[in-house]
Amino acid sequence: MPELPEVEVVRRGLEQYVLGKTIKAVDVLFAGIVDKLEVSQFLKKLQGERIEYVLRRGKFLIFKLSNYDLISHLRMEGKYEFHKQKEQTINKHVHVIFTFTDETQLWYKDTRKFGRMTLVEKDQALNYKGLQKLGPEPTDADFSFSVFWEQLAGQKKPIKPLLLEQKLVAGLGNIYVDEVLWKVQIHPKQPGNTLLFKEALALHHAIIEILVQAIKKGGTTIRSYKNAWGEAGRFQSELNVYGQAGKSCVCCQKKIKKMQIAKRGTHYCPNCQKIYSRLGRGKK
Questions:
Q1: What are the contacts of 54-58 at 24+ separation with CB within 8 A?
Q2: Are 8 and 71 contained in the same domain?
Q3: pTM across the whole model
């Protein structure tokens, strides 16, 4: 599933390929991709729109158009492909085709058909249901440790699902939560309100650090993720715990284990990431 690093890399590729292009026509081959609008209205409104720039918020892409915001969520398997000319071979996984006035095309492909697109009035993307409750971006400028620390105080849920909810911080998915928690030696089931101050501080730093590293490596390719240039990510060679069940932990040589937490496959080292029985928040 594309997480923040993969979506950011896709955004950068899209800006290189489609910035300034004007949409001549749109073909929707699977109506379920379009959310909140009738397909006919979606097509009509997009005609003649110019792509001014492309933003990312959490795992969402926002195409800033002349008169609208086009919101795209890749979900599990969504991807964009740029074609310099009209292609005759369109397989069953191509669901939306944007044709520009210069006859180049942008294809949206999705083997699982879980991705969604919608069109809202210009500068209204942040009011869209999936974007309204997102936490801060995982950057030094936006992601305040003091706020993070206070928010953890009221959270009895295990830390992994808390991070996956996108409310404490935006953009983390299954891969990077596992990697971040392993790096700071926090058990995925440790309740949020029992983290020690030093643990929360290390976690905060690791979230920012690992996501920056993943972006530099072009993201992680586990199944089919490719960026807008058609390239696979390279961060999978840096993974220490995700997908490593049965292999030796690089820190202690014990076997990495996998379990289910909130219906998500979760990888951890039972030796490095111990769970501690604490009644509440630890002292600073």
A1: 54/11, 54/14, 54/15, 54/18, 54/19, 55/11, 55/125, 56/4, 56/7, 56/8, 56/11, 57/125, 57/126, 57/131, 57/134, 57/137, 57/170, 58/4, 58/131, 58/134, 58/137, 58/166, 58/170, 58/171
A2: yes
A3: 0.89
Q: Are residues 260 and 180 in the same domain?
A: yes
88 and 111 co-located in one domain: yes
Residue 265's nearest CA partner among 161, 172, 163, 166 is: 161
Same domain, 48 and 154: no
pLDDT (tens, 9 = 90+) of the chain, 284 residues, equals 678 988 998 999 899 999 999 999 999 999 999 999 999 999 999 999 999 999 999 999 999 999 999 999 999 889 999 998 777 778 899 999 999 999 999 999 999 999 999 999 999 999 998 899 999 999 999 999 999 999 999 999 999 999 999 999 999 999 999 999 999 999 999 999 999 999 999 999 999 999 998 888 876 644 545 555 566 555 666 889 999 999 999 999 999 999 999 999 999 999 999 999 987 765 44
Beta-carbon neighbour count of residue 64 at 10 Å? 17
Amino acid at the residue 78? G
Q: What is the Cα–Cα distance from 123 to 15, expressed in whole angstroms?
A: 18
Identify the residue whose tokens are 């006035």.
101
> Does residue 8 belong to any structural domain of this protein?
yes
Inside any domain, residue 244: yes
Mark whether 16 and 109 lie in a shared domain: yes
Co-location of 28 and 102 in the same domain: yes
Range of the domain at 25: 4-132
Instruction: List the catalytic residues.
Output: 2-3, 59, 264
